[in-house]
Specification:
By secondary structure, this protein is an all-alpha fold. Helix content is 76%, strand content 2%. A two-stranded parallel ribbon has the order 1-2.
Length: 361
Amino acid sequence: MDKRHLNKKEYDLIEKEVGYYAENGIINNAQREEIISLYSIGRDLNFVRILVTVGSILIGLGFLSFVASNWKRLDEFMKFAIMFGAFMASMGAAYKLEENHFRIGRSIIYISALVYGAGIFLVGQTFNLGGHFTSAFLMWGIGILPMAVLFSDKLLFIFSHILFIVYLNGLYGYYTFPYLMVLILPLLYYLDRYLGNSKIGTFFTNVLLINSIITMGYKFNFEGVYTGILVFAAGAAMYLFCKRDYNPGVFRVSGLITMGLSGIFLTYKEVWQELSYVGRPEELAIAIGIMLILAFLWLTSKGNITALVFVCLIILRYYFDALYDFMPKSLFFTGGGLILIGFGYYFERMRRRDAENGQNE
């Protein structure tokens, strides 16, 4: 059975609790050792790893700067050979050093990722491959996914998401459709679970999903209101249908943030004026705002602090929209400050109540 990797705080807690069970005769010492053996302390992001990561990035940038400065003097074969050779050499070195010199090996794999990405741009320029520049970010993101899986590196996994986000947001104004994202997104969710259900990995995959929906809506010339409704529905699905064994807290927070932001977007009458069959867009927008406030207040009553944040944002949105042009500015900002202080006080009360309930349990 594979060991579960925990951070030191989590590992110490389990060791303490299992020791407590053994002391009280619930389990024997052999069972205690067997349970503890199922866990190991993972490699946390510490100061040394930060140093070697930054160092690897600087080395990679230095190498790329040297190659770029001499790029025009090299023939095509030499250009390709240098980039391919540098990539294969760094990958081989990272693989060899991974077991006994983890941090150094991991820093070299980051150099490999940079060399791979630079190679895509430089080789494409050399052979005049054409295409839109965002396609290079797509290829870069796809290419480092096997590296993230091979070395079980969550940082590379998250970096691939950033590259995909750059790819998507670079497509506006061009005729390229991001059809590949239909295949990439399920793969990312699968790999996230394979890499240990990383919470930050799950969050970035959710962000990429929402970004893909928005980009697809733009590409298919959807009205903004339809895209907003689709995004809101995606957020609701994240919140309502999250699995218990797959970071449910991350899905709920992602869903709430998505519903909150898209819901605020749908409270503007200008959004509904795009639809010719909506006779009273202003009244509809206000009705949606009221329903949102009621829904988030209900979630707040269940102890959801994130929902309270969006109640505050929606109220401030209407406060600014309705009163900014009519109230004296001193009175307007004073009122806004009082609203924020009031919500901050209630927010703190909820946080303390949750902390006290956790201690009592």
